[in-house]
Design brief:
300 residues; alpha/beta; 13 helices; 12% strand
């Protein structure tokens, strides 16, 4: 295939390498390429968006007047703070004629770039194209599964970053394996609540896009969200922690977005709530843990 890849960061260049190894022709677009350089990409067989979530809407608006509408594979993770929309939903809003698909899972770019094996999920509702993409994009390094739940797949991919921040705090405070396991289990429950409330399928929570991505992102020093949590545990402010990471930490805006949704719908998200209080500097890490431990007892 001729693939137009939008986004020249670590994730985008990693995907480019994977696709080229599979024999596809990849044309990479970076912001430095300029908006005019996007135009020729409409003639590709597949568009792949690997930009940071904050850049999705601006790019989607730029592509809304194209004459051709190739399938688009969205690889961005997050939720819009104002609307709660996922990346593919934002793309669909501005480019409704583009067949839309999602890629998510335990995709630590550094490991994939090293040639280490991984598995991920392709999600979409057009089964014919979904099967084709699964066959075309799978490789000896990246095994792709498929499902028909793009909403659940994307919501899981966004929310696991919030729980990964909490896990980074937990490990940064040296609270031990019991605390980490407890945190991840209850974090998974929060993810499941939101996934189902937004129309995702319960089984997606326990697949590669849910539990799989959570285990990778919430336990590895390669994860920016996990390292950000570590930095908060060291006593750094949010600004200082972000400066230390020196890369996009998607869990920060996603946490604000999901709590905005929670406020409108009376969702109970205690872990996300404490993460947001930490981000806003209203409590310190030990106090966040204490608040979680002192919550009213309840059934599981």
């Amino acid at each position: 295939m001729a693939i137009g890849l939008i986004g020249g960061g670590t994730w985008g260049t990693t995907l480019m390498g994977l696709f080229q190894q599979t024999g596809h022709r990849v044309e990479l677009w970076r912001r430095s390429s300029g908006i005019a350089a996007l135009e020729p990409l409409q003639n590709c067989d597949l568009l792949v968006s690997a930009v940071a979530f904050a850049g999705v809407e601006g790019l989607a608006k730029q592509l809304s007047n194209w004459n051709r509408y190739p399938p688009l594979l969205s690889c961005s993770k997050g939720l819009d703070p104002g609307t709660g929309k996922t990346a593919s939903q934002i793309w669909q809003l501005h480019c409704p004629k583009m067949p839309m698909f999602v890629l998510s899972g335990p995709n630590l770019a550094t490991e994939l770039a090293m040639g280490l094996p991984a598995a991920s999920v392709l999600a979409g509702t057009n089964d014919q194209l979904l099967n084709k993409l699964q066959m075309e994009l799978s490789s000896s390094h990246l095994r792709l599964y498929r499902n028909n739940d793009p909403v659940g797949t994307e919501v899981a991919g966004g929310l696991k970053n919030v729980i990964a921040i909490a896990a980074g705090v937990c490990d940064g405070l040296s609270l031990g394996a019991n605390a980490r396991a407890s945190l991840l289990t209850r974090g998974l429950a929060e993810m499941g609540l939101v996934i189902q409330a937004l129309g995702g399928r319960p089984e997606t929570l326990y697949g590669l896009a849910g539990l799989g991505d959570l285990l990778a992102t919430a336990t590895s020093a390669l994860s920016r969200n996990y390292r950000f949590g570590n930095a908060l545990a060291e006593g750094l402010s949010t600004a200082a922690a972000l400066e230390k990471i020196a890369a996009t930490v998607e869990g920060v805006p996603t946490c604000a977005a999901v709590l905005c949704l929670a406020g409108d719908r009376a969702w109970n998200l205690p872990i996300a709530t404490q993460v947001q209080e930490l981000i806003e500097g209203r409590i310190d890490p030990p106090m966040a843990i204490q608040k979680l431990m002192e919550r009213q007892l309840r059934s599981e």
